[in-house]
Amino acid sequence: MRKVLFGLSAILMCVLLASCGNPMSRLESIVDDMTENGKEYDSDQWESVLRDVADLQLSFWESEPSSADIKEFDKLGRSFEKAIDKAMKSKKSLKAFEKAYKALDKDKEFKKLIKDGEKAEKKARKAAKKSAKDEEDDEDEEDEEDDDE
Asked: Of 21, 24, 40, 114, which one has the fewest beta carbons inside 10 Å?
């Protein structure tokens, strides 16, 4: 009965993830599900979550986020880490997580996804920082013009 229930919840989670186009809202739904059900995840569910999160990160960083979006995404990342910590209090879930991590550590596609996500993050953070600095410089120039008048 439990397997059927977890199978249905996994299918529901996949449907919810597919219906949400925004990486932040999708990550938020993953965090919510992990908080509620993470202690019961098996290795396949952990592997799916880790793949989804890596894919979400890449999608987010490639979307050219603003500084405000980055702050919100970082906050969600901290929530994700807390949800993992909470789920790891269960020995069953901890063993399943370790098994999933070992499987993903051997997966070349997953490693490439992580690497691409890290590159996209560096690029996006740099662009957001530059954009914020440019906006600040523009405001300074406007203030100087107002002072001259």
From this structure: 21
Distance CA 73, CA 99 (A): 27
Phi, psi dihedral angles at 86 (to 5 degrees): -65, -45
Structure-token pair, residue 122? 């560096």
**Per-residue pLDDT reduced to its tens digit, 59-69:** 999 988 888 89
- Give the three-class secondary structure for 121: helix
Band (pLDDT 50/70/90 cuts) for residue 18 is very low
Helical H segments across the chain, by residue range:
2-19, 23-37, 43-62, 67-87, 91-105, 108-148
Q: Are 48 and 104 in contact (CB under 8 A)?
A: no
Closest CA to 56 of 11, 83, 12, 26: 26
Residue 48: closest CA among 96, 87, 108: 96
What pTM does this model have? Answer: 0.73
